[in-house]
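QA checklist item 7 of 12: single-chain prediction sanity check.
[x] sequence parsed
[x] length recorded as 340
[x] structure emitted
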Amino acid sequence: MDDWQVMEQAAELAERGEPVALATVVWRQRPSSGQVGSRAIITAAGEVHGWIGGACAEPSVIRQAREVIAEGSPRLLLLGSTDKFGDAIPEGMTAVPISCQSEGALEVYIEPVQLAPHLVVVGRSPMANALADLAKGIGWRTELLDWTEFAAGNADERSMVVVATQGHGDEEAIEHAVAARPAYLGLVGSRKRGASVLGYLAERGVAKDQLDRVHVPAGLDLGKTTHLEIAVAILAELVQLRAAGELSAHSAKGTSAGSPEKPASRRGKRPSSGSAARTRASGEPVSAEATDPVCGMTVATGKAGRPLEFEDVTYYFCSAGCRSEFESNPDSYARKETRC
């Protein structure tokens, strides 16, 4: 993929609601394989589309990108041996030590790609149509469904759901919506109508904490307005809540597959050789990652990690050179505690 294809795919994934991070190489020290301007997108599952560097850099960038996706905040990485940089690492930069045999280094900027907000409007009234059109106009991913078409699977905890059925299936639509536990759930109607709908659902056994999350009436209180103005008031409330960060906690849940690696420190230190670095002799994995016992670099387990078994413990390596070094003198690198 070239750089433009990477950007286009990042936008497409964001529009579909899939959290991704965009990684860009902003500086390199030869002979690193990453080039200035090289880009890649990384999904929450750790899939990489594009190119930012070889086997030394990629695993660390993936782990850091998954943290960026989970936290929603960008970061600037320095990938390389920190010994040569000393105290010259700028404040705010995250140093991630890697032991690359080429002795190259990279600076990589990782930023979360903002997801297009997902709005589900339930109903076929003029107000519902107006709200859907307004949301689409500001770039939101919007679905307009009749109450007979709507189900819990049409939304998730990152979605915003507005039920505007106006008496036609209010109860059914709200019951399906609360099951999805969306970031926002609003009912268009009077407070009296809302109390009736929620009271009915409470009698049916819907949990009180879920019903308490329903905004009724939905939207900012603008007094007596037209259906178009009601649509504006609802959209304004959603924009206000998102800007205040009151919906962001929901969007972060469920994106991390596993716990991404924390950097050794802001200044960066070589990872300890005592990190989880092996699988049991039975083949059962202890971790999806391992530490190369020769150079200390974090590598992926599996065939790509060049596995080698020694004294009933499987070790993994970043390169054939490190594996060969271990084979030549395994007693110098094998972890002592594994022999107890």
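[x] summary fact logged: Residues 227-243 form the longest helix (17 residues).
[ ] second reviewer sign-off
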